[in-house]
């Protein structure tokens, strides 16, 4: 071989090696595509928040698993960010200083604790104010509210826009939170002034001017007044009531905080933050809602504390139930969602459009997962992308996680193109999964309006070999033209996810 050829080969090898080194050095990066994103100590919403990221921030990826990215934070530290809040790519350009925002198109739009009408209303918002968008889920949008909380609004009732400067959007969403029900809005700062309207617990109002006794607010474009004791201003402590509860109303149940703990206006993490209690502080407990406890603060207001955080002394069974929140029902529950098929296993194929079952099951699973994680449930996916997972691996995930519920999502096929409907399978005739299957089937038929093909015994591997309560859902038939169109419709998919979600909540109650 000639000297020139040797030189040419060496140049080519050096170029290839340089490219490989550069690619390795470049690594994987993610850019944050939401506002005020939590960075957690582990790959779960149950893990503690160790930091925050803003829209446009970028991080180098350490690894990824089950819908979460582990990212480098500097100084040898790392944290976890949910995959729905970032975009993966090479090293991005400079941070983007804008965010997506949403604005209500209607008066008093309900803001809920999750992406479903099943969730409690945590507040209402009015037209004219923009709120940073955190994520979107079919027909729902998650927005950032004042005082480090979030909520979900129906997409059909908001206007979405892009390119809003972050400082402006953040300033525009500064609102005071109403701390009581039926708060009178008056024309002047006097108890004898005419009443213009009323506010509900959790409502947000624009403050024009703060005062010791009265707060001037914007009410439907006009100046009005509300007693200052009924408003919680962002970043400020709750006001003290004029009168404190009588001493003879002391509770026999008390709690003591182990660590600094948030006290909220309602039984859930999406309710307004009233104050942060110090470690060692004690409060009388006056009621309960699922796993949340109602307490009386020193300023006379009632507040709610997550019941699994403090030490409690006394008999909780004697406390009045204030109504169970979804946070209380699903918090800490582990639910494994199994998107059927995947990878080279495409599953059923649509009769008219050729849509693959594997794609529809993944879409439906993602919608359901978003609804569940909003409540504090721990959701584990057997697959989060288009990969093949063996039947045994799916069962092993269920066993390893010791889950409370295993749900396998599918779409059906049949040689008869006229066959239409929904069915849900279980394995144990006398087990919990039979009851769960009945609840899911009832909700699916109600929400989708398809023929009820009933709950049935199914000798499927993921049911038969699974020691946890497990069901397999056949949502509809891809070999039926009408069913196929419904299966592809995002609105119908959300209805199906909502049906399963409601059934799971009902079962876990």
TrEMBL record:
InterPro entries: MurNAc-LAA_cat, N-acetylmuramoyl-L-ala_amidase, N-acetylmuramoyl_amidase_3, SH3-like_bac-type. Residues 1-24 form the signal peptide. It comes from Tumebacillus amylolyticus. CDD domains: MurNAc-LAA. PANTHER family: N-ACETYLMURAMOYL-L-ALANINE AMIDASE, N-ACETYLMURAMOYL-L-ALANINE AMIDASE AMIC. Residues 25-90, 99-162, 173-235, 250-313 form the SH3b domain. It holds the Pfam family Amidase_3. It comes from the Bacteria. This is N-acetylmuramoyl-L-alanine amidase. Keywords: Cell wall biogenesis/degradation, Hydrolase, Signal.
């Amino acid at each position: 071989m000639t000297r020139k050829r040797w030189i040419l080969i060496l140049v080519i090898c050096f170029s290839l090696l340089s490219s490989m080194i550069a690619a390795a050095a470049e690594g994987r990066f993610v850019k944050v595509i939401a506002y005020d994103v939590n960075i957690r100590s582990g790959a779960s919403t149950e893990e503690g928040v160790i930091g925050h990221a803003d829209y446009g921030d970028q991080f180098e990826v350490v690894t990824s698993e089950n819908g979460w990215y582990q990212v480098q934070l500097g100084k040898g530290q790392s944290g976890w960010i949910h995959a729905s809040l970032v975009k993966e790519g090479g090293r991005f350009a400079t941070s983007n200083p804008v965010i997506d925002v949403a604005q209500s198109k209607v008066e008093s739009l309900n803001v809920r604790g999750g992406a479903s009408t099943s969730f409690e209303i945590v507040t209402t918002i009015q037209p004219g104010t923009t709120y940073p968008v955190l994520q979107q889920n079919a027909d729902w949008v998650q927005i950032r509210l004042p005082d480090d909380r979030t909520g979900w609004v129906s997409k059909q009732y908001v206007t979405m826009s892009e390119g809003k400067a972050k400082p402006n959007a953040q300033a525009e969403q500064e609102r005071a939170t109403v701390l009581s029900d039926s708060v009178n809005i008056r024309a002047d700062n006097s108890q004898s002034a005419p009443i213009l309207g009323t506010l509900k617990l959790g409502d947000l109002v624009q403050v024009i001017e703060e005062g010791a006794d009265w707060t001037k607010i914007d009410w439907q474009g006009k100046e009005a007044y509300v007693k200052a004791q009924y408003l919680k201003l962002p970043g400020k402590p709750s006001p003290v009531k004029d009168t404190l509860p009588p001493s003879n109303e002391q509770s026999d149940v008390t709690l003591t905080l182990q660590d600094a703990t948030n006290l909220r206006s309602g039984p859930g993490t999406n309710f307004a933050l009233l104050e942060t209690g110090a470690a060692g502080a004690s409060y009388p407990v006056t009621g309960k809602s699922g796993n949340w406890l109602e307490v009386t603060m020193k300023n006379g207001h009632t507040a709610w504390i997550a019941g699994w955080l403090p030490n409690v002394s006394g008999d909780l069974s004697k406390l009045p139930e204030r109504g169970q929140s979804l946070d209380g029902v699903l918090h800490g529950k582990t639910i494994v969602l199994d998107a059927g098929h995947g990878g080279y296993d495409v599953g059923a194929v649509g009769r008219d459009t050729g849509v693959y079952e594997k794609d529809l099951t993944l879409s439906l699973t993602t919608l359901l997962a978003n609804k569940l994680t909003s409540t504090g449930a721990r959701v584990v996916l057997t697959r989060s992308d288009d990969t093949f997972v063996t039947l045994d691996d799916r069962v092993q995930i269920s066993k390893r996680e010791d889950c409370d519920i295993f749900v396998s999502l599918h779409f059906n096929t049949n040689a008869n193109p006229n066959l239409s409907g929904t069915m849900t399978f279980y394995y144990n005739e006398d087990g919990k999964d039979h009851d769960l299957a009945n609840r899911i089937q009832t909700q699916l038929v109600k929400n989708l309006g398809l023929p009820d093909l009933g709950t049935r015994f199914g000798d499927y591997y993921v049911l038969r070999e699974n020691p946890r309560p497990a069901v397999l859902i056949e949502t509809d038939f891809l070999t039926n033209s009408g069913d196929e169109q419904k299966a592809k419709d995002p609105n119908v998919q959300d209805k199906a996810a909502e049906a399963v979600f409601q059934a799971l909540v009902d079962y876990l109650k």
